[in-house]
Design a protein that fits this description.
20% of the residues lie in helices and 29% in strands. It is an alpha/beta fold and 419 residues long. An eight-stranded mixed beta sheet has the order 12-13-15-14-16-17-18-19, with helices on both faces. A four-stranded antiparallel beta sheet has the order 4-5-6-7, with no helix packed on it. Strands 8-9-10-11 form a four-stranded antiparallel beta sheet, with no helix packed on it. The longest helix has 17 residues.
Amino acid sequence: YSVATGEKAKTIFTDKNDKYVEPQHLLWFYNNNPDEFIWLSQRDGFMHMYLYKNDALVKQVTRGNWIVNDILGYNASNNEVLFTSTKDGAMNKNSYAVNISNRAIRKINSTDGWHSTKLSTDGKYLIDAYSNTTTPRNIEIINTENPEVSKRILTAKNTLADYKTAEVKPVSLQADNGTPLNGKLIYPIDFNPSKKYPAIVYTYNGPHVQLVKNSFPYSGNLWYDYMANKGYFIFVLDGRGSSNRGFEFESATHNKLGEVEMNDQLKGVDYLKSLSFIDASRLGIHGWSFGGYMTTSLMTKYPDVFKCGVAGGPVIDWSMYEVMYTERYMETPKTNKAGYEKTRLWDKAKNLKNPLLIIHGAQDDVVVWQHSMKFIRNAVKTNTQLDYFVYPAHPHNVRGRDRVHLMQKISDYFDLHLK
């Protein structure tokens, strides 16, 4: 388009997909050359870089069954683009450089983990802040042209060293179609394998979220450690639909949000039931937002699996959620009527058998209050009992001092029904 007049000049290219396209990055003129730019696309199934000259594709710069997370910048002297990626596994976000001419890729950081980086304007120095399951936080300045030359400017102390943090073990499962799934199992403090313990499944499993990754603390949430101190197992699984695994993995939920994800979470339940030290009669589930939707879905569609659940800010009907999000993954209520009817939950309130606590912020502008209100209305109509709590003046997430109250309420609910 012309900046001066706003008139369209031409179409450079078009990305298409039978399900959806999801541009996540700006077009990038990597060398201040107005004729050449890099575009990030999932057109081959994974997010990769494509080099264009004017309106012609020159080459695919990166390729493989891994994704480019972000472009950091350009080093003109080496003709390299620096970027972060899952090249060494979806649980890592490491830094790399790719030569635009020959597409050779080299790793910049020496330690695998979850890296947050800032590149100098000339592309020669990288400020790299990272953690992994055993490293609380390090910050290094790395010479990108010779990564062995680096300087550590911060080695953070483990501020949890004096606390009883939980033991965490990685779990690898398979979905019903053989897709590998990453999970983790958080053990109770002073674990005794001869005892039987209650377990809580914490779930999100929605788009653009990853809960299982190589970062500190490995538990991922200190509430898990708190509950481990109270004698619970916590289980977390990134099922299909979650991020950093490529388009096929993420789009497996297209037009049926919550269905494939429930199948994967139930694979996790089967795993928990296979462990001799887990009491299968004392399983709970908890999640917020998409995780609240998952919690409510599992409690109403598989009412005999979990003894209790806590759903925060849950989506109840996708036809009442944000258009830009919902229609990407579900199309429209007109074109996918059966999908919307199958995945809505308010008409399934009558299926609820076991205790469910729904929590909602009264000023929630993301999952608006009508979602849980509609579920409650149908629970009343069908004489279905459930528990409900509202946080006045809070939007989608309960923050500040009131969050202490929230986490105590959630913890107490599980103590009431699982202990």
